[in-house]
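thread: overnight batch results

M.L. [08:02]
morning all. the overnight job finished for the chain we discussed friday. pasting input first so we're all looking at the same thing
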Amino acid sequence: MKKRILLVAVLQLFMVFNSCSSDSGSEDPVTTDDLQKGEIKADFIARYSPDDFVINNDDTAFFVGQSSNDKDYIIKFQKIDKNGNLTLLKGITNINLLSSRLAVTPTGDFLIIAYNDESEGDKIFRFENNYTDINLFYIMKPISSPFASKIKLTAITENNDNTYFVFDQGNRHIKRFVPELNTDVFVAGSGKNAIVDGAGLDAGFGSVSKIISHNNALYLIDNLYSENTLASSNLRKLEYVNNQWKVSTLLSTTVTNDAFRDIIFDSKNDLLVLKGKGIYKLNLLDNTLSLFKDGEIKVAAFGKNSSTNITVDFSSLKSFKIKNNDLYLVTTTDFIKISDFQTKFAAVEK
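M.L. [08:03]
and the structure it wrote out:
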């Protein structure tokens, strides 16, 4: 009798262990059961707020930003894969590279400009030797005029042809950098602090903070300041027409809290604009906006050792990107990825 009782107990214990083992191997680390009501599952929530980021073909995000809690590095260049695994690629001690901007080359190299620095503002740097070094890649040609200001680059984008468009804040010029020829050429800009549509030297710029390239045209966020006060925020287009570069203004606002903060094209070729209370879609036929996403969402991500739950307010987003159906958000404190975001948004809105 004692042997039978012992055998039954052993069998029951075996069944319990076998069930636990089976469950742990088959369950997704994050299931809908882990989420509170109204929460959306995020692929990752990194407690870091990038100054700029790009996404490569295998959905790895590369980003640069200030490191406030690191004693060794002022700035960090890092990558985070689609599963949220974070890797430090390069710790940067050069304070001149604060608030940097990134561009990725067709070969997968990364270029960086010193957004805030006067002494390094005319230079384009490149990460080399498997990201261990930041070396000088190009120095913009000085302007041959006694009235020219020192070149200060504040925006850069790759044009899908191994050439790069940059904005020179010092002289309010758009220029094109051609690495194969080791040169840069003037595109547009009168040099005056003014929002003026036109071609070449007749076009006027304020302060361009963002340039993106799409279908042989450039789209810019151009803010005009008067005595350090925002006078207007403008969404503008630059395209090559009749053998000249023509600048036109698509949208403009004089309301400070409605200024344009970021622009992207999504996988459907829709131009999405971050401004005011959230993200809008711009109809390029008539330059009208329709709301894409506003309000707040509750987001949760679960790691092996910890979980994170935050609320994202779209009115305070710093920047965003969409690749395929994955949404990347940057807040003042966090970097977030939500895959299949449209399906998840629709589920919580029911």
